[in-house]
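Slide 14.
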Amino acid sequence: MLYPQRFTQFTREHADTVAALLCGLLLFLGWFALHLGALGLALLLLPAAYVIGGYESAREGLTTLFKEKELDVDLLMIVAAIGAASLGLWRREYHLIIDGAILILIFAISGALEGYAMQRTERSIRSLMSLTPDTARVWDQGREEEVSISQLKVGDEIVVKPGELIPTDGIILSGYSTLNQAAITGESLPVEKTIGAEVFAGTLNGYGALQIKVHKPAQSSLIQRVIRLVEQAQTEAPPSQEFIDRFEKGYAKVIVVAGILLATLPPFLWGWDWEITIYRALTFLVVASPCALMAAIMPTLLSGIANGARQGILFKNGAQLEKIGKVRAIAFDKTGTLTTGQLQVFQVISASGYTRDDVLKAAASVESSSEHPIGKAIVQAAGNLNWVGAVQVQAIAGQGIVGIAQEQQIIVGNAVFVQKYVANLPEELREMAQSLEQEGKTVVWVAKNPTPQATRGAEFEVMGVIAIADHVRSQAAATITRLKKLGIEQIVMLTGDNQETAHSVAKAVGIARVYAQLLPEDKLDVIRRLQQQYQTVAMVGDGINDAPALAQASVGIAMGISGSDVALETADIVLMADRLEKIAVAMHLGRRSQSIVKQNIVVALGFIMLLLVGNFLGNINLPIGVIGHEGSTVLVTLSGLRLLK
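Slide 15: predicted structure.
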């Protein structure tokens, strides 16, 4: 029973693809039967190919005709194919039925490709919804009760244990912890939260248990707003798509009206007999079908997509390959995009009488008992040194950590915390620490006392300071320089981090315009403002907080390795190896594709005009018209394959 279920699910999810494959198979079998002289079998197989391959196009075309009172290329293709088949039956030139089936097959393949592109939104929303748990623990009259998120009310008190996701936005009533908010706000460092602080749904609780009061409906939480923004941005049709739709409908109207006039007026105006008139009208429908025009675009874009894939650039649909070649402005997220997203020891400055290794070993001895990202970075930096883990370790939330190692008391923390144990911080170290903090680095102080049970006072002496930073990607600065040389008019950086850190990273990579301390909706607003000024705007990001901006941007680009599932699903282009320099390669591919598409359109329209004129003057018959029509389609298809190089 398992295999039939899988087959049924596959055919349901890939109905357009299955229809195109069946159409192609029946077309081949019909052609083969015709070649063998089995006319009856061919006339059974070929109509089946028409029905299976053309059903969806016919349904959409008729729906557009009756509901919207508009003609489109879907209906025009079906009319042209049926016209060719009818003429083939009438004149017993059965190869014309094959030509009509080929027209339908081309359109069926195009419909299948479009269907895959439209499935992105649903997957994106499913991934976003997975960020919040389905239930929450409500604290009611001294006991916990697990309820559905949808049942939460303003004023409810919920309990969140260490390592759990925050189920909804709220205010902390009791407890303190470190929350990883990078997925929502883009902050590179986990944030210490205690009584009175606001927490967001979808953020990850650290080491402490929290009691939270719900202060807004669950559907109004930040993550739910992100979901709605992604939905809205992805369903808004870009202007270029609207222009193509209008052109398609206008083209179909002109061809249909011209076909009707050509089928009725010549006998009265020029004395043609009705057989010649109908023959010319049907030939007109075949040669006027826009297959060459359609082939002018899709093979080119598919070739560009294949080229990009070989270089680690995943284009999710062909339209984005075209759009990236038109980009005039680009916005970069900071954490995980311009930077690696992983904290590392940036610099160690030792006080007089101590070495760099002394400072690292002392700090690592106590931080080895901590789960804080800063502690992990210090331990990693001291990995090759000979140090011993501390005992009686005590962490003070938001301040520092204390422990005993090799009969010495060690303290590691911020300046305010260390000053409780040290009378005066060395002035030289203080100035260096302030300078590092102004550059966006996080600075921790290290001090020790030789007496294990020492109390706060002058006995503690400072060993040095350690600067922690999220390192800038090695290729980031070169990428920004390359983009400027390509003529990108505006490059900006968007981040939820503080101003100092943001400007420090921006200066290092060569970006002049910075927007800091942004929530997801703020990033979306910046993208919209850029679009008003520059029209085609790209956004590069990796986090859930980037999803609305990635969806709104003309081209959304996500980091393949460090990117969240939501960012990967929402984006139009994915850099599979997180190599920023591939953005410039993608833009070059986009510009080449634009050039080739324009050339192909000129060739396709040129062939159509020549065939139409030849048909009107009576210099071509239907087989020649079909050959010219299919020949122009093959020509522009081969031209599009140039992008494979």
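Speaker note: The two ends are 46 Å apart (CA to CA).
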